[in-house]
Amino acid sequence: MKEGESIKVITFGDFLISELKNTHFSPKESEILAFVIYKKHVSVENILENVWEIDQMPCRNDITVFFSKINKKLKNIARLNTKDSIVSVMSNKIETDFGNFERLSLVSLDKKDTKSLKKAFDIYNGDFLPSVSSDWALSVRMYYRQAFFEVGKYLVYSETNVSNEMMYLKKMIDLGLDYNVVKLIVEEIEKRYEFDLVYEDFFDYVLLKNKLMRFSSYIGMVIIFDKEFPLEDNIRKGDIILKIDTLAYKILIERNWKLSKEKDVELFLAKLKDENAKIKKVEII
After folding, report:
1. CATH number for position 60
2. In a domain? residue 250
3. Residue-wise pLDDT tens digits, 221-239
4. What is the tens place of the pLDDT at every residue in 155-191?
5. Where would a tag sit more exposed on the chain, N or C end, judged by fewer CB atoms within 10 A?
6. Whole-model pTM?
7. Which CATH number do you get for residue 285?
8. Distance in angstroms (rounded) separating the CA atoms of residues 244 and 217
């Protein structure tokens, strides 16, 4: 290793060593390296038990071959070192995105340090090692995903600028947060608006994302009434509405998967009519 050399390891979204952008690590090499970096010091047996399925576990000689291949690709900036069956990554300095995210987010949430939380939010660019299906990676992935949600939720709740609020929500949805999670945030946002309505940019964005999903969570509609009707007082928990004018609304009603789309719409409109709504026109969007 050269004096002063350091490595920056990216695990959110995909595995990458910034100083070795043109170096390809195989999926198993990436996982071994990520596992050792995450654990800092780990036994050979622990690597075998966590990185491989029990019926695919290689012998110790085979894992030594993996170590040699990894070290060759690491060149002079780091190396996997084994001493007394304990493996670690030797480097002058190792900087990880998950380490920076955890450092900035966990303490900052307690202190309500918005500046640090914004930095943490920017660091998280996707799931931890998304292509790795091992139990250890799944556990770590869920841990950081939940932490990212808590950071995003805090930033949205504390934000007073609508554009920034939208930016946080877009990233959270883009990175695959479940609609049920997003809805919790939406409910809080709705409290800021008269009639419990959301703003147009957010409505249109959720509608677009909904259309792109394999299994959509909402049915989108435009409803025009013959006379004014307080639709915001007659929606179900989980529905999202946008008021266009005094007689027209856009609405996303949450799907009931036990019913067909047509039946779901029929029951929703029937409920409105039971509340004396005079519906002039309904258009599915």
Report:
1. 1.10.10.10
2. yes
3. 999 999 999 998 888 777 8
4. 988 887 767 877 888 788 778 766 666 666 766 666 6
5. C
6. 0.70
7. 3.30.70
8. 22
